[in-house]
Design a protein that fits this description.
Blueprint (H helix, E strand, L loop, with lengths): L2 H9 L19 H6 L7 E3 L6 E3 L3 E2 L6 H10 L3 E3 L9 H9 L7 E6 L4 H15 L4 E6 L10 H12 L3 E8 L3 H10 L5 E5 L8 H10 L3 E5 L14 H9 L1 H10 L6 E2 L6 H10 L6 H14 L20 H12 L4 H9 L3 H4 L19 H12 L1
Parallel strand pairs: 3-4, 4-5, 5-6, 6-7, 7-8, 8-9, 9-10
Antiparallel strand pairs: 1-2
């Protein structure tokens, strides 16, 4: 591994210890389970100035199809669950709402809208509330924004209306690319309370500084993509992959994120009980030298495959392919085992982009500074999804 990557991993050891304490959430149907687990792992942080006390490891519901896993997580004391209007073709919200209906008042629930206009966003919100079976959501995110220009006055007006109507308690923005610009915009906007960022052991070393500024300003910070693309279930033919999975590289990745006290909670995806238990254990496990070694190995393994979404290649494809987006869609399929989700996003691209075939180019104009084999990965995505 080159020195810059090694230094980045090592630099993480200097992050302050997580400011956490073993506390119980508000009383509710799961209170007995929470009490039993008080000494075995529950850790909480306050989500910025929202005052919401959330478990350090929360639940990202995007690819979950088994409601019993969500129910079990709530029984274990996890108290924040995240979904979105677009997940699973709109069905995810319905499943999450049914799984959590009996304990809604004791939990923090968030959803998202990809709408680009205020009117459409409010329509999405009404649908989300109906599907979730609730009168309000605790956090409503503008989903997958990559530039401050996408946080329009029209959308801010929709947020204001939703808050006044009591349909949302707090508002936020989720971002995969252009993250530092989005974080800055959230910091400067009093209507926005939370930022949901892609943050893991591969992301740019400048990102923690932006996250720290958001936390200092009282904004809640939620970490997603904490496993760096998953790669928990795919490419099983590789001995290196099987070894990393067996020895706990995914848990090490989550523990790496949890050490940053400015990241108030995380929303790793969980599809089965094994993943739930692994992620829960990470909440109380210290990050150490063995974890750092595992992540160094993991970085070598995923280096040619995983896009860090650093923004370095934005606009460099002469044929207009949004490289980072397409590689993210491929990660959904290969990293998370969610082919349908990756294909859905790919097919939402404008036709003039979706019809591009990178195999037709003699050379690729996009050169990744992190070593991703861009042309190979784009061709793979086009073969899978087109």
């Amino acid at each position: 591994m080159n020195s810059s990557r090694r230094n980045f991993l090592a630099a993480g050891l200097a992050l302050p210890a997580a400011a956490s304490a073993t506390r119980l959430p508000a009383p509710g149907p799961a209170a007995a389970s929470n009490l039993a687990l008080q000494d075995s792992g529950l850790r909480f942080r306050v989500l910025g100035k929202t005052g919401l006390k959330v478990t350090r490891v929360a639940f990202g519901c995007m690819i979950t199809s088994d409601a019993s896993v969500i129910e079990r997580a709530a029984d274990m004391g996890i108290n924040y669950f995240d979904t979105a209007r677009s997940y699973q073709g709109g069905q995810n919200e319905r499943m999450v709402g049914a799984a959590l209906k009996s304990r809604r008042k004791s939990l923090v629930l968030s959803t998202k809208t990809g709408a680009r206009t205020g009117a459409e966003a409010l329509e999405h919100l009404e649908t989300s509330l109906r599907e979730l079976g609730t009168d309000w959501v605790d956090i409503w995110y503008l989903h997958a924004r990559s530039s401050a220009s996408q946080l329009t006055g029209d959308l801010m007006e929709a947020i204001t209306k939703a808050k006044k109507a009591g349909k949302i308690r707090f508002a936020g923005v989720s971002t995969h690319s252009g993250q530092e610009e989005i974080i800055k915009a959230v910091v400067q906007n009093p209507l926005l309370d939370v930022v949901l960022v892609s943050y893991n052991f591969t992301t740019a070393p400048t990102l923690p500084g932006a996250i720290a500024e958001a936390a200092k300003a009282g904004k809640g910070v939620v970490g997603m993509k904490v496993m760096a693309g998953g790669f928990r279930r795919t490419r099983p033919g590789s001995d290196a992959y099987n070894k990393l999975r067996r020895e706990g590289a995914m848990v090490a990745a989550l523990k790496w994120v949890l050490r940053n006290e400015n990241v108030h909670t995380t929303i790793p995806s969980m599809t089965d009980m094994d993943q739930l238990e692994e992620n829960f254990r990470a909440m109380t496990s210290d990050y150490g030298a063995a974890d750092e070694k595992l992540l160094a190995e993991q970085l070598r393994y995923i280096g040619p495959l995983y896009c860090r979404m650093c923004g370095g290649c934005e606009g460099t494809c002469p044929r207009g392919v949004p490289v980072a987006d397409v590689l993210r869609f491929l990660a959904y399929a290969e990293g998370y085992g969610q082919f349908a989700l990756g294909r859905q996003h790919f097919q939402e691209l404008p036709p003039e982009v979706a019809d591009v075939r990178c195999a037709d180019c003699e050379t690729c104009a996009v050169q990744c500074r992190n070593g991703v084999r861009v042309a190979e990965r784009l061709i793979r995505a086009q073969e899978l999804f087109a």
